[in-house]
Write a structure and sequence with these properties.
The protein is built from 22 helices and five strands. It has 454 residues and is mainly alpha-helical.
Protein backbone atom coordinates (compact mmCIF):
# COMPACT_ATOMS: atom_id res chain seq x y z
CA UNK A 1 0.00 0.00 0.00
CA UNK A 2 2.79 2.43 0.94
CA UNK A 3 4.78 1.53 -2.19
CA UNK A 4 1.76 2.38 -4.31
CA UNK A 5 1.51 5.73 -2.52
CA UNK A 6 5.18 6.51 -3.29
CA UNK A 7 4.75 5.50 -6.95
CA UNK A 8 1.70 7.75 -7.24
CA UNK A 9 3.55 10.63 -5.56
CA UNK A 10 6.56 10.25 -7.87
CA UNK A 11 4.38 10.09 -10.98
CA UNK A 12 2.44 13.18 -9.85
CA UNK A 13 5.64 15.14 -9.18
CA UNK A 14 7.07 14.26 -12.60
CA UNK A 15 3.87 15.25 -14.37
CA UNK A 16 3.47 18.53 -12.48
CA UNK A 17 7.14 19.45 -12.92
CA UNK A 18 6.86 18.81 -16.64
CA UNK A 19 3.82 21.11 -16.80
CA UNK A 20 5.35 23.73 -14.50
CA UNK A 21 2.32 23.55 -12.19
CA UNK A 22 3.88 25.53 -9.33
CA UNK A 23 0.72 25.92 -7.24
CA UNK A 24 -0.04 22.19 -7.19
CA UNK A 25 3.60 21.36 -6.45
CA UNK A 26 3.65 23.75 -3.49
CA UNK A 27 0.50 22.06 -2.19
CA UNK A 28 2.13 18.62 -2.44
CA UNK A 29 5.28 19.85 -0.66
CA UNK A 30 3.16 21.31 2.12
CA UNK A 31 1.09 18.16 2.69
CA UNK A 32 3.65 15.40 2.04
CA UNK A 33 5.84 14.00 4.80
CA UNK A 34 9.54 14.50 4.10
CA UNK A 35 10.15 10.75 4.52
CA UNK A 36 7.94 10.11 1.47
CA UNK A 37 9.28 13.11 -0.45
CA UNK A 38 12.89 11.93 0.09
CA UNK A 39 12.12 8.57 -1.58
CA UNK A 40 10.54 10.33 -4.56
CA UNK A 41 13.48 12.75 -4.59
CA UNK A 42 15.86 9.82 -5.14
CA UNK A 43 14.27 8.80 -8.44
CA UNK A 44 13.78 12.26 -9.96
CA UNK A 45 16.22 13.53 -12.59
CA UNK A 46 18.81 16.11 -11.44
CA UNK A 47 16.89 18.90 -13.25
CA UNK A 48 13.61 17.96 -11.58
CA UNK A 49 15.30 17.79 -8.19
CA UNK A 50 16.60 21.33 -8.67
CA UNK A 51 13.14 22.56 -9.69
CA UNK A 52 11.44 20.88 -6.73
CA UNK A 53 14.09 22.10 -4.29
CA UNK A 54 13.68 25.64 -5.63
CA UNK A 55 10.04 25.57 -4.49
CA UNK A 56 10.92 24.60 -0.91
CA UNK A 57 11.43 27.62 1.36
CA UNK A 58 11.13 26.14 4.87
CA UNK A 59 14.72 25.50 6.10
CA UNK A 60 13.49 23.16 8.83
CA UNK A 61 11.61 21.08 6.26
CA UNK A 62 14.65 21.00 3.96
CA UNK A 63 16.83 19.88 6.88
CA UNK A 64 14.56 16.87 7.42
CA UNK A 65 14.78 16.08 3.70
CA UNK A 66 18.60 16.27 3.74
CA UNK A 67 18.83 13.94 6.74
CA UNK A 68 16.74 11.32 4.92
CA UNK A 69 18.54 11.34 1.57
CA UNK A 70 21.05 8.66 0.63
CA UNK A 71 24.58 9.76 1.47
CA UNK A 72 25.80 9.82 -2.14
CA UNK A 73 22.77 11.79 -3.32
CA UNK A 74 23.10 14.30 -0.47
CA UNK A 75 26.76 14.94 -1.28
CA UNK A 76 26.00 15.30 -4.97
CA UNK A 77 23.02 17.61 -4.46
CA UNK A 78 24.46 19.85 -1.74
CA UNK A 79 27.20 21.05 -4.13
CA UNK A 80 24.64 23.15 -5.99
CA UNK A 81 22.99 24.73 -2.94
CA UNK A 82 23.84 28.38 -2.29
CA UNK A 83 26.16 28.74 0.71
CA UNK A 84 24.02 31.22 2.69
CA UNK A 85 20.99 28.99 2.20
CA UNK A 86 23.00 25.98 3.32
CA UNK A 87 23.96 27.77 6.54
CA UNK A 88 20.32 28.65 7.20
CA UNK A 89 19.27 25.02 6.68
CA UNK A 90 21.87 23.67 9.11
CA UNK A 91 20.92 26.36 11.63
CA UNK A 92 17.37 24.95 11.71
CA UNK A 93 18.34 21.27 11.91
CA UNK A 94 18.47 19.19 15.11
CA UNK A 95 22.07 19.22 16.29
CA UNK A 96 22.54 15.44 15.97
CA UNK A 97 21.33 15.39 12.35
CA UNK A 98 23.42 18.47 11.49
CA UNK A 99 26.56 16.92 13.01
CA UNK A 100 25.97 13.67 11.12
CA UNK A 101 25.64 15.46 7.76
CA UNK A 102 28.51 17.90 8.32
CA UNK A 103 30.91 15.01 8.91
CA UNK A 104 30.10 13.85 5.37
CA UNK A 105 31.06 17.17 3.80
CA UNK A 106 34.50 18.38 2.81
CA UNK A 107 36.26 19.58 5.97
CA UNK A 108 36.81 23.08 4.59
CA UNK A 109 33.14 23.52 3.65
CA UNK A 110 32.04 22.05 6.98
CA UNK A 111 34.22 24.56 8.89
CA UNK A 112 32.89 27.45 6.81
CA UNK A 113 29.28 26.49 7.54
CA UNK A 114 29.96 26.13 11.26
CA UNK A 115 31.69 29.53 11.38
CA UNK A 116 28.58 31.22 9.93
CA UNK A 117 26.01 29.43 12.06
CA UNK A 118 24.57 30.74 15.30
CA UNK A 119 27.20 30.44 18.04
CA UNK A 120 25.26 28.23 20.45
CA UNK A 121 24.10 25.87 17.70
CA UNK A 122 27.55 25.54 16.12
CA UNK A 123 29.13 24.86 19.54
CA UNK A 124 26.66 22.02 20.15
CA UNK A 125 27.34 20.53 16.73
CA UNK A 126 31.12 20.75 17.10
CA UNK A 127 30.85 18.98 20.43
CA UNK A 128 28.89 16.14 18.81
CA UNK A 129 31.34 15.93 15.92
CA UNK A 130 34.22 15.48 18.39
CA UNK A 131 32.87 12.08 19.47
CA UNK A 132 33.55 8.83 17.64
CA UNK A 133 31.22 8.00 14.76
CA UNK A 134 29.76 4.89 16.43
CA UNK A 135 29.28 6.34 19.92
CA UNK A 136 26.30 7.68 21.86
CA UNK A 137 27.93 11.12 21.90
CA UNK A 138 27.83 11.41 18.11
CA UNK A 139 24.05 10.99 17.89
CA UNK A 140 22.79 12.50 21.14
CA UNK A 141 20.59 15.60 21.21
CA UNK A 142 21.87 18.38 23.46
CA UNK A 143 18.44 19.99 23.73
CA UNK A 144 16.63 18.42 26.72
CA UNK A 145 14.69 19.33 29.87
CA UNK A 146 16.68 19.26 33.11
CA UNK A 147 15.40 20.85 36.33
CA UNK A 148 16.51 20.80 39.96
CA UNK A 149 14.89 18.33 42.35
CA UNK A 150 13.23 21.00 44.52
CA UNK A 151 11.16 22.43 41.64
CA UNK A 152 7.46 21.66 42.17
CA UNK A 153 5.12 20.13 39.57
CA UNK A 154 3.32 23.42 38.90
CA UNK A 155 6.60 25.19 38.13
CA UNK A 156 7.70 22.35 35.82
CA UNK A 157 4.51 22.72 33.77
CA UNK A 158 5.01 26.49 33.58
CA UNK A 159 8.60 25.95 32.37
CA UNK A 160 7.37 23.51 29.69
CA UNK A 161 4.87 26.11 28.46
CA UNK A 162 7.42 28.93 28.25
CA UNK A 163 11.09 27.89 28.27
CA UNK A 164 11.05 24.45 26.61
CA UNK A 165 8.63 24.89 23.71
CA UNK A 166 11.14 23.77 21.04
CA UNK A 167 12.61 20.77 22.83
CA UNK A 168 12.68 17.74 20.49
CA UNK A 169 11.82 15.15 23.16
CA UNK A 170 9.62 16.78 25.88
CA UNK A 171 8.30 13.49 27.28
CA UNK A 172 10.90 13.22 30.04
CA UNK A 173 11.96 15.74 32.69
CA UNK A 174 15.45 14.95 33.93
CA UNK A 175 16.11 15.87 37.55
CA UNK A 176 19.48 17.17 38.74
CA UNK A 177 20.82 18.03 42.18
CA UNK A 178 22.44 21.31 43.25
CA UNK A 179 25.72 20.20 41.64
CA UNK A 180 24.07 19.46 38.28
CA UNK A 181 24.34 15.69 38.66
CA UNK A 182 21.53 13.50 37.32
CA UNK A 183 19.53 11.99 40.17
CA UNK A 184 16.18 11.06 38.63
CA UNK A 185 13.64 11.36 35.84
CA UNK A 186 9.92 12.05 35.59
CA UNK A 187 7.58 11.36 32.70
CA UNK A 188 4.89 13.82 31.62
CA UNK A 189 2.26 11.38 32.88
CA UNK A 190 3.73 11.40 36.40
CA UNK A 191 3.91 15.17 36.27
CA UNK A 192 0.23 15.77 35.53
CA UNK A 193 -1.20 13.30 38.07
CA UNK A 194 0.64 14.56 41.18
CA UNK A 195 -0.28 17.50 43.38
CA UNK A 196 0.85 20.85 41.85
CA UNK A 197 2.96 21.69 44.93
CA UNK A 198 4.81 18.38 45.06
CA UNK A 199 8.57 18.70 44.30
CA UNK A 200 10.23 16.54 41.68
CA UNK A 201 12.37 14.67 44.21
CA UNK A 202 9.24 13.16 45.79
CA UNK A 203 7.82 11.50 42.66
CA UNK A 204 10.76 11.12 40.29
CA UNK A 205 12.05 7.66 39.28
CA UNK A 206 15.51 7.08 40.77
CA UNK A 207 16.30 3.79 39.02
CA UNK A 208 18.05 5.26 35.98
CA UNK A 209 19.43 3.64 32.87
CA UNK A 210 22.24 5.87 31.58
CA UNK A 211 25.03 5.73 29.02
CA UNK A 212 28.31 7.59 28.56
CA UNK A 213 29.21 9.65 25.45
CA UNK A 214 31.68 6.96 24.39
CA UNK A 215 29.21 4.05 24.78
CA UNK A 216 28.82 2.13 21.51
CA UNK A 217 25.66 3.26 19.74
CA UNK A 218 24.42 -0.31 19.18
CA UNK A 219 24.58 -0.86 22.94
CA UNK A 220 22.47 2.30 23.39
CA UNK A 221 19.96 0.94 20.87
CA UNK A 222 19.75 -2.35 22.77
CA UNK A 223 19.06 -0.52 26.06
CA UNK A 224 16.31 1.66 24.56
CA UNK A 225 14.76 -1.39 22.93
CA UNK A 226 14.98 -3.49 26.10
CA UNK A 227 13.37 -0.94 28.41
CA UNK A 228 10.97 0.62 25.84
CA UNK A 229 12.21 4.16 26.53
CA UNK A 230 11.55 7.10 24.24
CA UNK A 231 14.97 8.50 25.14
CA UNK A 232 17.99 7.59 27.24
CA UNK A 233 20.21 10.15 29.05
CA UNK A 234 23.91 10.54 28.24
CA UNK A 235 26.06 11.57 31.21
CA UNK A 236 29.73 12.51 31.55
CA UNK A 237 32.18 10.96 34.02
CA UNK A 238 30.85 13.27 36.76
CA UNK A 239 27.27 12.04 36.15
CA UNK A 240 26.22 15.38 34.64
CA UNK A 241 23.70 15.00 31.84
CA UNK A 242 25.12 16.21 28.52
CA UNK A 243 22.47 14.97 26.10
CA UNK A 244 19.87 12.35 25.27
CA UNK A 245 19.58 9.69 22.58
CA UNK A 246 16.04 9.60 21.19
CA UNK A 247 14.06 6.63 19.94
CA UNK A 248 13.98 7.90 16.33
CA UNK A 249 17.77 7.69 16.21
CA UNK A 250 17.66 4.24 17.79
CA UNK A 251 15.35 3.00 15.02
CA UNK A 252 17.86 4.28 12.47
CA UNK A 253 20.70 2.49 14.30
CA UNK A 254 18.83 -0.82 14.42
CA UNK A 255 17.93 -0.51 10.73
CA UNK A 256 21.52 0.28 9.76
CA UNK A 257 22.93 -2.51 11.94
CA UNK A 258 20.51 -5.08 10.53
CA UNK A 259 21.25 -4.00 6.96
CA UNK A 260 25.01 -4.03 7.61
CA UNK A 261 24.85 -7.54 9.09
CA UNK A 262 22.78 -8.89 6.19
CA UNK A 263 25.22 -7.46 3.65
CA UNK A 264 28.20 -8.82 5.58
CA UNK A 265 26.56 -12.24 5.81
CA UNK A 266 26.17 -12.23 2.04
CA UNK A 267 29.81 -11.18 1.67
CA UNK A 268 29.08 -7.95 -0.23
CA UNK A 269 30.42 -5.32 2.22
CA UNK A 270 28.50 -2.89 4.40
CA UNK A 271 27.02 -0.44 1.87
CA UNK A 272 23.78 -0.62 -0.06
CA UNK A 273 24.50 -2.34 -3.36
CA UNK A 274 22.82 0.43 -5.36
CA UNK A 275 25.25 3.01 -3.93
CA UNK A 276 28.36 1.05 -4.90
CA UNK A 277 30.28 1.67 -8.11
CA UNK A 278 31.07 -1.29 -10.37
CA UNK A 279 34.73 -1.24 -9.34
CA UNK A 280 33.98 -0.93 -5.60
CA UNK A 281 31.37 -3.70 -5.78
CA UNK A 282 33.89 -5.95 -7.53
CA UNK A 283 36.69 -5.12 -5.07
CA UNK A 284 34.49 -5.81 -2.02
CA UNK A 285 33.18 -9.16 -3.26
CA UNK A 286 36.46 -10.47 -4.66
CA UNK A 287 38.06 -11.65 -1.35
CA UNK A 288 34.84 -13.23 -0.12
CA UNK A 289 34.35 -15.21 -3.31
CA UNK A 290 38.03 -16.14 -3.24
CA UNK A 291 37.29 -18.04 -0.02
CA UNK A 292 34.63 -20.02 -1.89
CA UNK A 293 37.07 -20.53 -4.75
CA UNK A 294 39.72 -21.97 -2.41
CA UNK A 295 37.10 -24.19 -0.80
CA UNK A 296 36.04 -25.49 -4.20
CA UNK A 297 39.64 -26.23 -5.13
CA UNK A 298 40.16 -28.04 -1.81
CA UNK A 299 37.00 -30.10 -2.37
CA UNK A 300 38.26 -30.89 -5.88
CA UNK A 301 41.53 -32.29 -4.52
CA UNK A 302 39.70 -34.26 -1.80
CA UNK A 303 37.38 -35.83 -4.36
CA UNK A 304 40.34 -36.37 -6.70
CA UNK A 305 42.11 -38.25 -3.92
CA UNK A 306 39.27 -40.74 -3.91
CA UNK A 307 39.16 -41.06 -7.71
CA UNK A 308 39.79 -44.81 -7.68
CA UNK A 309 37.04 -45.32 -5.12
CA UNK A 310 34.63 -43.28 -7.23
CA UNK A 311 35.55 -45.38 -10.27
CA UNK A 312 34.47 -48.52 -8.38
CA UNK A 313 31.38 -46.97 -6.81
CA UNK A 314 30.17 -44.20 -9.10
CA UNK A 315 26.96 -44.04 -7.06
CA UNK A 316 28.92 -42.25 -4.31
CA UNK A 317 29.04 -39.10 -6.45
CA UNK A 318 25.25 -38.88 -6.60
CA UNK A 319 25.00 -38.06 -2.89
CA UNK A 320 27.74 -35.40 -2.70
CA UNK A 321 25.38 -32.42 -3.40
CA UNK A 322 22.83 -33.41 -0.74
CA UNK A 323 25.50 -34.01 1.92
CA UNK A 324 27.21 -30.67 1.23
CA UNK A 325 23.86 -28.85 0.93
CA UNK A 326 22.41 -30.14 4.21
CA UNK A 327 25.61 -29.30 6.10
CA UNK A 328 25.87 -25.84 4.56
CA UNK A 329 22.24 -25.02 5.30
CA UNK A 330 22.26 -25.98 8.98
CA UNK A 331 25.63 -24.27 9.42
CA UNK A 332 24.19 -21.04 8.02
CA UNK A 333 21.11 -21.39 10.26
CA UNK A 334 23.20 -21.86 13.41
CA UNK A 335 25.55 -18.97 12.65
CA UNK A 336 22.64 -16.68 11.76
CA UNK A 337 20.85 -17.49 15.04
CA UNK A 338 24.01 -16.82 17.06
CA UNK A 339 24.92 -13.62 15.18
CA UNK A 340 21.39 -12.31 15.71
CA UNK A 341 21.56 -13.22 19.41
CA UNK A 342 24.86 -11.38 19.81
CA UNK A 343 23.51 -8.33 17.95
CA UNK A 344 20.42 -8.09 20.18
CA UNK A 345 22.32 -8.76 23.39
CA UNK A 346 20.50 -12.06 24.09
CA UNK A 347 23.69 -14.10 23.72
CA UNK A 348 26.89 -13.24 25.59
CA UNK A 349 30.40 -14.71 25.44
CA UNK A 350 29.84 -16.45 28.78
CA UNK A 351 26.99 -18.41 27.15
CA UNK A 352 29.52 -20.17 24.86
CA UNK A 353 29.13 -23.72 26.23
CA UNK A 354 25.35 -23.48 26.55
CA UNK A 355 24.80 -22.07 23.04
CA UNK A 356 27.25 -24.40 21.29
CA UNK A 357 25.91 -27.48 23.13
CA UNK A 358 22.35 -26.60 22.20
CA UNK A 359 23.15 -26.07 18.51
CA UNK A 360 25.23 -29.26 18.41
CA UNK A 361 22.30 -31.20 19.91
CA UNK A 362 19.92 -29.71 17.35
CA UNK A 363 22.35 -30.53 14.52
CA UNK A 364 22.76 -34.10 15.76
CA UNK A 365 19.00 -34.71 16.05
CA UNK A 366 18.29 -33.23 12.61
CA UNK A 367 21.25 -35.18 11.23
CA UNK A 368 19.82 -38.46 12.54
CA UNK A 369 16.37 -37.68 11.08
CA UNK A 370 17.65 -36.74 7.63
CA UNK A 371 20.37 -39.39 7.75
CA UNK A 372 17.67 -42.04 8.12
CA UNK A 373 15.65 -40.50 5.26
CA UNK A 374 18.63 -40.37 2.88
CA UNK A 375 19.82 -43.83 3.96
CA UNK A 376 16.41 -45.34 3.21
CA UNK A 377 16.36 -43.63 -0.21
CA UNK A 378 19.86 -44.97 -0.97
CA UNK A 379 18.85 -48.49 0.10
CA UNK A 380 15.65 -48.51 -1.97
CA UNK A 381 17.31 -46.94 -5.02
CA UNK A 382 20.13 -49.50 -5.15
CA UNK A 383 18.27 -52.43 -3.54
CA UNK A 384 19.42 -54.82 -6.23
CA UNK A 385 23.09 -54.09 -5.55
CA UNK A 386 25.00 -56.13 -2.93
CA UNK A 387 26.50 -52.92 -1.47
CA UNK A 388 23.15 -51.15 -0.98
CA UNK A 389 23.11 -51.54 2.82
CA UNK A 390 26.70 -50.35 3.21
CA UNK A 391 25.96 -47.40 0.91
CA UNK A 392 22.86 -46.51 2.92
CA UNK A 393 24.87 -46.51 6.16
CA UNK A 394 27.67 -44.48 4.53
CA UNK A 395 25.30 -41.79 3.29
CA UNK A 396 23.29 -41.73 6.52
CA UNK A 397 26.36 -41.43 8.75
CA UNK A 398 27.85 -38.77 6.46
CA UNK A 399 24.66 -36.69 6.78
CA UNK A 400 24.75 -37.04 10.59
CA UNK A 401 28.40 -36.01 10.79
CA UNK A 402 28.02 -33.21 8.24
CA UNK A 403 25.04 -31.62 9.99
CA UNK A 404 26.48 -32.05 13.49
CA UNK A 405 29.85 -30.54 12.59
CA UNK A 406 28.14 -27.75 10.62
CA UNK A 407 25.97 -26.79 13.62
CA UNK A 408 29.06 -26.91 15.86
CA UNK A 409 31.16 -24.72 13.55
CA UNK A 410 28.26 -22.38 12.75
CA UNK A 411 27.64 -21.63 16.43
CA UNK A 412 31.29 -21.55 17.58
CA UNK A 413 32.78 -19.25 14.95
CA UNK A 414 30.56 -16.16 15.64
CA UNK A 415 31.24 -16.42 19.38
CA UNK A 416 34.99 -16.79 18.83
CA UNK A 417 35.03 -13.81 16.46
CA UNK A 418 33.06 -11.75 19.01
CA UNK A 419 35.61 -12.69 21.65
CA UNK A 420 38.37 -11.48 19.31
CA UNK A 421 36.48 -8.20 18.70
CA UNK A 422 35.84 -9.11 15.05
CA UNK A 423 32.34 -8.53 13.67
CA UNK A 424 30.63 -11.96 13.99
CA UNK A 425 28.38 -11.21 10.99
CA UNK A 426 31.23 -12.35 8.71
CA UNK A 427 30.78 -15.84 10.16
CA UNK A 428 27.68 -16.51 8.08
CA UNK A 429 29.47 -15.71 4.85
CA UNK A 430 31.48 -17.94 2.56
CA UNK A 431 34.07 -18.83 5.23
CA UNK A 432 31.75 -21.04 7.27
CA UNK A 433 29.87 -22.61 4.36
CA UNK A 434 33.11 -23.32 2.49
CA UNK A 435 34.79 -24.97 5.49
CA UNK A 436 31.67 -27.06 6.11
CA UNK A 437 31.60 -28.21 2.48
CA UNK A 438 35.23 -29.38 2.71
CA UNK A 439 34.67 -31.25 5.99
CA UNK A 440 31.43 -32.83 4.71
CA UNK A 441 33.02 -34.23 1.55
CA UNK A 442 36.04 -35.53 3.43
CA UNK A 443 33.94 -37.26 6.12
CA UNK A 444 31.67 -38.80 3.49
CA UNK A 445 34.48 -40.44 1.58
CA UNK A 446 36.31 -41.58 4.69
CA UNK A 447 33.16 -43.29 5.98
CA UNK A 448 32.40 -44.77 2.56
CA UNK A 449 35.88 -46.24 2.17
CA UNK A 450 35.58 -47.97 5.52
CA UNK A 451 32.04 -49.32 5.22
CA UNK A 452 32.19 -50.25 1.54
CA UNK A 453 35.61 -51.87 2.09
CA UNK A 454 37.01 -50.12 -0.99
Amino acid sequence: MHNEKIKLLTASLKRLLRRGATKQLLNIIKKTHMADLSIAFNVLTPDNREKLFGLMDDPEQIGVLFSMLEETLFLEFVKNVEFTRLVDIFDHMPSDDAASLLTLLDEELSDQILSKMQKEESDNIEQLMSYGEDTAGSLMVTDFIALEEDVVAKQVIEALQSKYLDVEMPFYIYVVDEYGKLVGVSSLRQLVVVHPEKPLKEFMAKDLVIVKPYTDREEVARLVSRYDYLAIPVVDDDNRIVGIVTVDDVIDILHEAATEDILKMAGVGEEYIETQTVWRGTRIRLPWLFASFLGGVAAFFIIGGFEEDLAKFTTLAAFIPVIMGMGGNIGTQSSTIVVRGIATGRIEIQDFTKVVSKELAVGLILGVIYGIFIGVIAKLTFAAEPFSMALAFSVGLAIIMSMSIAALVGSMVPLILERLNIDPAVATGPFVTTSIDIVSVYCYFMIATQLLDI
